[in-house]
Structures are given as C-alpha cells and as structure tokens.
Write a structure and sequence with these properties.
By secondary structure, the chain is α+β, with helices and mostly antiparallel strands. It is 18% helix and 37% strand. The protein has four helices and 13 strands. The strands form five sheets. The chain has a four-stranded antiparallel β-sheet, with no helix packed on it. It has a three-stranded antiparallel β-sheet with strand order 7-8-11, with no helix packed on it. A hairpin with a 2-residue loop joins strand 5 and strand 6.
Length: 204
C-alpha cells in the first residue's frame, strides 16, 4: 500500500493498493538463456516473497508446464514459447483472485471507503445553475442517519433525496428538478449534530 499526500489538507491523500504479478516462463523462446532464466527466477522470487505488494497474482505458477517449469503449458502457447494464446489468456484471467479487488472497492456508488473524511461537510451542487439535473456531494466521518432535503425559497419541502443511515464516507446524490419551476431552491443536510444548507438555482 502506498499513501500519497498532496496539498496542505490532511484529507488530501491518495491510497494505492499495489498488486504484483509474476513473469511468465519463456523457456525455448528467442529470449531463453541461462542469464535470463536466472533473472526471471530472481524477479519472481522477489515478487512472491518480498512483502512489497498487497497481493500477488502468480501467473508463472498458473501457466508453467509441470513437466518443464521453465516453459509455458503447450495448450497455452502460441508456438513461440513466449506469448500465451487465447486459452492462455483465459487461464491468466482465472488466476486472478477477485476477492482482493472486492475488498478494496466500495460497493456503494459515490462512496470512497479508503479515503475516509474526518469532518462532516456539504459541498456546493454542480452544475449550478442546472437544468434539470445536478449532483450534491457530502461527507460524513462516522456512521450516521443522513437526511438530505430540497426546499423552495419559502421554506416549503419539495423533495427528500435521502433519509437513511450511511457508513462513513463521501457520497454523491443526483437531484432531478424536472417537475419544479425555474427558481432558487435550497438543499439541507442533517447528520448527527451536523446541519448545513446551500442554495441551488434551477434555470429552464
């Protein structure tokens, strides 16, 4: 895992999960030589055992010929002993453990599970003015019951966009003002003890 910090805000970080993949065997190809074989073994041993990766996809083990581990499986070889054929590509895909990626990706649309916010916030909708759709983004640092509501200029409730419990994260909600007349409206969020209101403008 690599954490990259930028800007001056503590929330301006990017966390990268790094996956390593071992090199395919190439015995019998135009690149085959004792020096290249030694380098191939050294690199693959490092990828598997260095601990520098969050996950390792062992393509070498999946694609090698058990009868000759320095070579590709005959059924996966295009014939040049270097490039996999269609069967080989399928085998490489099957060697990928998708549970790793499922663990680092959020299943909720608009939720960032790796860069969790440390404060409540409600951002300005965009675009603004809009016609007829716009996006409203907010962040919550802890699991909270979140209510997001649209009001007209007189304070009358026009629409409740959200009223449910959310885990910590950053979310984006679409608002469609197709049924409303052009004008100034307000959107308000309540989450735990946090509340905030911002203005949006619908122009048709």
């Amino acid at each position: 895992m690599i954490t990259i910090e930028f800007g001056t805000s503590p929330t301006e970080t990017l966390i990268l999960e790094i996956t390593g993949a071992t090199l395919l065997p190439f015995g019998g190809s135009a690149y085959d030589s004792p020096d290249h074989q030694n380098a191939w073994k050294t690199v693959n041993d490092w990828i598997r055992n260095s601990g520098r990766f969050d996950a390792v996809i062992d393509l070498d083990s999946a694609m090698r010929d058990p009868a000759n581990p320095t070579k590709l499986l005959p059924d996966a070889d295009t014939g040049d002993h270097l490039h996999p054929n269609e069967t080989g590509h399928r085998m490489m895909a099957e060697a990928v453990d998708l549970t790793f990626f499922a663990g680092i990706l959020s299943s909720a649309v608009g939720e960032n599970s790796k860069n969790l916010p440390n404060t409540f916030s409600l951002l300005q909708n965009y675009p603004n003015p809009f016609n007829p759709t716009t996006k409203i983004k907010f962040s919550i640092p802890t699991r909270s019951l979140v209510t997001l509501t649209i009001y007209d200029i007189l304070g009358r409730e026009m629409s409740t966009l959200l009223n449910e419990e959310k885990t910590a994260g950053t979310y984006e909600v679409d608002f469609n003002g197709n049924l409303l007349a052009s004008g100034v409206y307000y959107y308000s969020i309540i989450a735990e003890k946090f509340n905030d209101t911002k203005k949006l403008i619908l122009l048709k």
